[in-house]
Amino acid sequence: MTSEILEKKDLIKADPVFGQLSFNDHEQVVFCQDKDTGLKAIIGIHNTVLGPALGGTRMWSYKSEWDALNDVLRLSRGMTYKAAITGLNLGGGKAVIIGDAKTEKTPELMKRFGEFVHTLGGEYYTAEDVGMDTADMDLVRTVTPYVTGISEEIGGAGNPSPITAYGVFMGLKAAAKYQFGTDDLKGKKVLVQGIGHVGETLVDYLTKEDANVVIADINEERLQAVSKQYNSTIYRGADIFDEEMDIYAPCALGATLNDESIAKLKARVIAGAANNQLADENRHGAMLKDKGIAYAPDFLINAGGIINVYTELEARDRDWITKTTENIYNTTLDIFKHAEQNGLTSHQSALSIAQQRINDRKKQNKN
Ligand code: NAD
């Protein structure tokens, strides 16, 4: 026991910063503090080879600063790969504000945060994430232009959720095509877990394709409303992973794919909006591959939202948004084929293709 503690202490001493947590080639991590407003924030810039880092700000009551740092490191890296695989000229970044969004968020705090974003001179663009809404981004916009997800009246691209749902639907159809040989969803039993902003629109698309849609949520009111509107079945069992289904669409929380759930899962396809669905990206990606389940990588198929906000940085029309989001279908199919040819999981395949794009651009930039 003592030697274990010593070993950990020695490790921290040797690599107190870059050797810890989820540091993984991050370019910059900025700690922002302001006593007057109570702001404590961390901005993580993972990679800017393809363009300025873009990613939302999350306000959360983290158990510790350590947890907050770990979260921003993990999330900012995810944004790098999401932008790269989608073909956008954006890097990956993210910010976290430590605190309770319901009780500790004030206009002064948001503006002060915006001032810190401004000091980065456009290396990082912020946006909404958990605990933030459009009004918060509008406040940030009063002190810096380096923000997206602002109101439509002041040049914002509008609600990203419908376009995110469309991308998820494209990815789901591509995964079905790969697994079942057809992307016709008629009669396929699809369980949508989480029928919030994205999940509900996905239910709409699936219903229009005559899929057999089953919905699960912890919010009874939403279950009633969505079931009534789309005539979908409400899941009433104790554990969705005991349910027979063709397709599982996680649209609520991350990390639902773990040792226990994968062991039980009967679906042949997984495609949903939730971020970080694999509790452990290597271990659980491999378990899914071994079970012959076609898993559409989350960061690829939920990119509709970032495609949408991209138009706040570069003038593009609705048609471009739709076409780029539709292309998620082709990319998802390519990923499955690439994974099969190279003995990789679909998640590893998507990461490696994204990394290749970054490496190629880095070479070009040097020449
Ligand atoms: P939301 O908050 O509108 O909806 C989430 C829904 O999940 C809610 O109805 C909630 O009651 C339900 N839920 C929570 N815990 C649950 C549980 N344990 N079991 C079943 N249901 C549960 O969120 P959203 O905007 O629809 O996003 C859904 C997911 O997609 C999130 O993980 C989000 O990070 C991700 N995502 C969203 C977007 C977007 O554009 N909104 C973009 C990319 C990724």
UniProtKB/TrEMBL annotation:
| GO MF term list | nucleotide binding; oxidoreductase activity, acting on the CH-NH2 group of donors, NAD or NADP as acceptor
Q: Which UniProt keywords apply?
A: NAD, Nucleotide-binding, Oxidoreductase
State the taxonomy lineage.
Bacteria, Pseudomonadati, Bacteroidota, Flavobacteriia, Flavobacteriales
Q: Name one GO biological process term.
A: amino acid metabolic process
Q: Signal peptide span per the entry?
A: none
Claim: Nucleotide-binding is one of the keywords in the record: yes
Binding residues for NAD(+):
G194, I195, G196, H197, V198, G199
Kindly give the SUPFAM superfamilies that the UniProt entry links to this protein.
Aminoacid dehydrogenase-like, N-terminal domain, NAD(P)-binding Rossmann-fold domains
Q: What is this protein called?
A: Leucine dehydrogenase
Q: Which CDD domains does the record match to this protein?
A: NAD_bind_Leu_Phe_Val_DH
Q: Which family does it belong to?
A: Belongs to the Glu/Leu/Phe/Val dehydrogenases family.
Record domain Glutamate/phenylalanine/leucine/valine/L-tryptophan dehydrogenase C-terminal: where: 158-366
Pfam families in the record, alphabetically?
A: ELFV_dehydrog, ELFV_dehydrog_N
Give the annotated active site.
K94 (proton donor/acceptor)
